[in-house]
Structure formats: structure tokens, C-alpha cells
Amino acid sequence: MNFDHETHLGRKLGVLPFAPTLICCYALEQQTSINLMIAPPHPGCSFRQRRPAAFTLIELLVVIAIIAILAALLLPALAKAKTTAQGAACLSNLRQLQLCWRLYVDDHNGLMPPSNDVISGLMFRGVEPSWAVGDGVHDLTTSNLMRGVLYPYNKSVGIYRCPADKNTVANHPEILRTRTYQLGATLNGYANGVPMPSGLSQYHKTKESQLLTPPPVQVFTFIDPHPACADGSLFGVAIAELDPVGGNQWSSMPGEQHNQGANLAFADGHAQRFAWRWSRKVSYPPPPYTPIANAADRSDWQRLADATPR
Prior knowledge:
2 domains, 5-stranded mixed beta sheet, 4-stranded mixed beta sheet
């Protein structure tokens, strides 16, 4: 018995047996419930079983190459965006600390908040009363920050630490440091109870009204220090007229975590980034003074010297 699979299929579908080849192919392609078990397609049928979709080896290699190219293009941009975001957050922290500084000045008849460090060997530690109490390199918790004179004005301990600062507590690599910033030493700063700069009381500024040269808009207050210098609350700039012993050298060193630059706050309330021309390498604890290395290093030192009140 001859089996006419187009006619048979047409009856199964309830259609008339015209254009049998068209019915066969249309039915097999559109009716998923009808398959080759009903009737195998005849030699002239246009329907063909489709192979499962799959990538060839060459296609996979092309896709991998495209992904690699896109990653190479995007990763630097993402890293730059992250760095930019961290810099913006750091500037925000400094502006908030500077606002606390301003509120303290207003509440204390123009007296600037103190920095009060004790020195043991080459290590510094803030003691009360000070804007920052404790040791930024060794403190395991934020409890010392809560003892600072600025804490009542903003009780968020996060503003004391730069988000780009990934340095860890000494001997505790699993714990990030709790404080990054320091305050200019001549702004009501003390070391072992002695007004800074030592022996030159005319350069020791206790009140905001004494910030005349340069004016407040040019006087830096808070700064990102180098991680090796970030223990105490003071940041000192060795200038010959202010520090005859140190002369024109580095005393404290600025940080470089913002694309070889540091963020600073200023007495008028603004904050900005200083880009450095030279990268300084030093380990903790640093020496009391570090000579200026070259012209680029001197240019960086001069920017901070010019922002230090006389």
C-alpha cells in the first residue's frame, strides 16, 4: 500500500489535500506537536531538521577577543572614575572638618582648635585637648577620635579618614587606619607642651584673626599626610624663618594617594587638590627632617611653605 504522507497529514490537520508539499512543510515547521513520527518527509519536501545552534571555535575566539578589547578600554576608565569619586569624597570630608573648625572658632571667641602632640622617639601621638587624640598609625578603634574637641560638631568618625587611604594599622594588616588627616602645626599646635614653631612665638597662631600673611583663603589647615607621617595630629612644614634647626626641608610629608596629589582644606572653608611634581618615598617612622631632593621636590615644598602663616 502506497502511503501519501501529504494527503494523510492534510487530513490529520483538517485541511483539504491541495498543495500537498506546501501543507507538509508548513505543518512540520509550525505545528510543534506534529513531528516526523507522523510521516517522514518525502525526498522533495523542503522541510529539514534544524541542527542545534552552537558556536564554532573561531566564533568563540572572536567573542573572547572582543571582550578582552572592551575590558582593556573600560577598566582604566572605571579605575579613573573610582579615583575621582574617592577624591571627591575626601574633599567632602575635609570641608566637613573645616566646618567643625569654623564652628569651634566661633564658639571660642576666635581661638583655633588645638593640635597637641607628645613625642616619643620619632613617634607622635595626640593628647587632650586636641582636635585629634591618639595615634593614626596604631589606633585600633575610633574611640580616641571621639575625645577630640571637634567631635561634638560632627559625630561621624568617617570624616577623619580619606576613602583612598588603604593603609592598615601597624601589626594589624586586617584593620584599616581610623584617621588620615593632620592639621597645620603653627595653627595653635603644640609638641610636648611647647607652642609650635618651637622658640618662635611670633609665628605661633592661636586666633583666626592672626592669619594675615597669607590671608585665610591661602592658609592650609587640614591635609592628607604621607602614610609614614600620619601618627600625630600635627603637620609641620620646616621653613628656615620658622624652624632654624630644620631649615628649608621636609618635616612632615604630604600624601600622594590622589594621583600623586594631596587634598587640603583652607581657613576660609574651601578644599582643593595639590598635584605634586615629585614622589616622596619614606617609611615609618620617618626622620625628623628630610632634605629636598631636587627642583621638582622644592616646587612642591614651596607650595606648602607659601600656604603656611607667617
